[in-house]
Amino acid sequence: MSDTFEVEVGPKGRVVIPAPVRSRLGIDVGTRLAVLVDEGAVVLVPRDALRSRIRAMFGSLEVSMSEELLADRRAEAAADAARS
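RESULT FIELD:
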């Protein structure tokens, strides 16, 4: 299958994703897509695929990023309180 298709923006900014692309990516009616703008390009990514990519990138971290951020904020607050 070719990875290049031409589509046209229709009324209300709608774009029809070609059937071979939808089939290949498992995009059905109701599939949620993330719309990304990357260097002047519009990229549509199924949300589940995006979530999987993010988990693959950060899943090996041993510390929760939210817990790390909270710990940093608490340390900053304690340092501010000690200076006061």
